[in-house]
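User: Sequence for Dyp-type peroxidase below. Tokens please.
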Amino acid sequence: EAAIPFHGARQSGLTGPQLPATRLLAFDLPPNSPAADRAALRTLLADWTGLLSATAAGTPPDPRLRGDDGPPRTASLVGLGPALAARLALAVPGGLAEPPAFPGDRLDPARGGGDLLLQLSAADPWTLAVLTELAGAAAHSAGVVPRWSQSGFLPPTRPGATPRNLFGFKDGTANPDEDAARQWVWGPPGPHENATVLVYRRIRMDTAAFAALPAERQEAAMGRRAADGAPLTGTAEHDEPDLYAKHPDGAYVIPATAHVRLTGPRLDGGARMLRRGYGYDDAPDDRGLLFAAFVRDTAQFTRVQSRLAERDALNPFVTHTASAVAYVLPGAPPGTVLGAQLLG
Ligand code: HEM
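Assistant: Structure tokens for Dyp-type peroxidase:
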């Protein structure tokens, strides 16, 4: 399969397919003078650009990344936390507000937030580990300190097919096409049109309890079928869910508390988010979903999560344990460095 180029209008972590192994790394920039902090950030983004572009191009700086089997595929995403952007008075757009607390949240601050967010993805865990080491060394040299890191994975999936989450359902079916994404995911025309905003939630899933439900209860909670991801009102994965369809007894086919009903764009003036989640498995009682949604404004997430927190049929089986928000930089076109627009 073809390499995913690092350089381009958008960052590689959002242009290509989701690679199966991922790691989110969050860092803090200990406060100094704004000028020194900007300089440290500029150095780090230049170092990361060098490392990630050379690796993606098949000319990595470290022999362990060469691969016996040809150059490994990698992709990456860099974002800035709202507090850092404010502290350094960077010209980021609005829409970066942290979501409020929701009922049921059990957020661990040590696993969330951060000044800088780096998502590294690779076709295999070895490449991911080496790339993580090198990116972390660059951060260390720039005086940037690790805050948290989280690894995740996807099941083996045919190219173009939707991966499943640990409840066994296809996850990512109803993502926006390019036209809808231009309106709801990417920034407006101007300096931020290839930038977006990440809302990350680490969501623990009680997979055993969910698996113990009869198949029809699972599908009613989701509003889709487990086997093929089709809505309960349709026959194929990409059929539009019909939220008005009723059974002869008057009950909705897609129940009132079904996840797909509460998250659908109809309740939100058509608003959409681009979801690129991963599974995680950190301990026998701590596995679940690394929910990663890309939006123009975190308010889009907050509206949906407010409804979910109140009545989502998945609630008995899920707990949000960490949260982070980041301004995802536009890509670096060839010959340029990530973040140049903001830092000069
Ligand atoms: C759709 C799973 C949490 C927003 C879906 C679908 C599944 C799913 C299986 C249907 C297939 C698809 O379109 O991708 C889960 C699980 C979650 C979770 C297991 C927690 C562990 C969330 C959260 C949000 C969210 C926290 C946002 C606040 C959405 C949206 C859709 C969706 C916007 C698409 C709805 C549509 O346009 O039809 N989710 N989800 N999900 N989910 Fe979630």
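The CA atoms of residues 186 and 196 lie 5 Å apart.
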